[in-house]
Amino acid sequence: MKKFLISLAIFGTFIIYSLGIRHQSPVLGKPAPSTSNNSTTSPAMPATAAGGSSMMATRQYKDGTYTGSVADAYYGNVEVSATVSGGKLTDVKFLQYPNTHSTSVVINQQAMPYLQQEAIQAQSSNVQVISGATYTSQAFIQSLATAFAQAKA
Fold first, then answer.
1. Domain residue extents for the chain
2. Other beta carbons less than 10 A from residue 145's beta carbon
3. Which residues pair with 83 in a beta bridge?
4. 108 in Cβ contact with 130 (< 8 Å)
5. How many CA atoms lie within 13 A of 84 on its CB side?
6. Which residues make beta-bridge pairs with 47?
7. Structure-model confidence comparison of residues 120 and 30, the more confident one
8. pLDDT of residue 29
9. Angle, in degrees to the nearest 10, between helices 102-122 and 134-151
10. What is the mean pLDDT of residues 74-99?
C-alpha cells in the first residue's frame, strides 16, 4: 500500500509540474540583425554581367498594402499583409497566425520575425522554411505569394 501511495504522489507531482510549465510565458529573444550586405543578389533578382539587376526594371510592384489569402497552417490560419513602397516590399505583417496553443505561440513568436525579415530581404515569397515552424512557414509563403500577385505592376 505504501508503494502505491508513493507512486501516486510522484505521479501527481509530475502532472502538477507539467501543467505549471506549460502555462508559463516564455522569454523570447529577437532575431539577430542580418549581416549580409546589399551587394548580394537573391534568386528572385539575378545580377547581370555589368552588376546591375536585370529584373529590376521589369519586376516592379505597385505601391500599396495588399492582403494575402488565408492559408491553413494545420494548427490555425496564417494571413499576411504586404506593404509595397517605391516598388519594393517594405513591410510584412501577420494578420492571423496559429496562437491558440501555448506551443504554437512560442514557435510562432520565434519564427515570424525571421519570415518577415527574409521576405523583405528576398523581395519575394521565396523564403526558407523554418525548421520547427514548417506549417507556419508554408502558410506564410502561400499567403505572401497571393499578396504579391495582387501587387504586380
1. 61-153
2. 17
3. 65, 91
4. no
5. 21
6. 53
7. 120
8. 46
9. 40
10. 95
Distance CA 95, CA 59 (A): 26
Residues 18-53: tens digit of each pLDDT: 776 655 544 444 444 444 444 333 334 433 334 444
Please choose, from the candidates 93, 76, 82, the residue with its C-alpha nearest in 3D space to the C-alpha of residue 138.
76
HEC readout, the chain: CHHHHHHHHHHHHHHHHHHHHHCCCCCCCCCCCCCCCCCCCCCCCCECCCCCECCCCCCCECCEEEECCCEECCCCEEEEEEEEECCEEEEEEEEECCCCCHHHHHHHHHHHHHHHHHHHHHCCCCCCCCCCCHHHHHHHHHHHHHHHHHHEC
CATH number for 61-153 (one of 3.40.50.1820, 3.30.479.10, 3.90.1010.20, 3.90.1150.10): it is: 3.90.1010.20
In terms of Cα–Cα distance, which of 113, 117, 108 is closest to 34? 117
pTM: 0.64
